[in-house]
Known about the structure:
The structure is a single chain. The chain is about 35% helix and about 15% strand. The chain is α+β, with helices and mostly antiparallel strands.
Amino acid sequence: MCMLANVQQKTIQPIIEAAVAKGARIHTDEYGIYARLSAWGYRHKTVCHAHGEYARDKDGDGFCEIHVHTMEGTWSLLPSWLRLHRGTS
Length: 89
């Protein structure tokens, strides 16, 4: 994970291409920076945080096929787990 000083499509494209296999499905919010993911060779699904949507159950089976919280939750919990189990601050 890295912080970008200038977040644009031209700055995220090489990072995505280095880390994600072509044809993979990427879930994001509707931030415009992700608009070209399909053109770059990825399957792209979105949720709309502006409308209070954080996950979407596309087929009504109770399982949210489209969401972004798995990685957000991982990154939010990782530092506290590392601190307790690995002595990392």
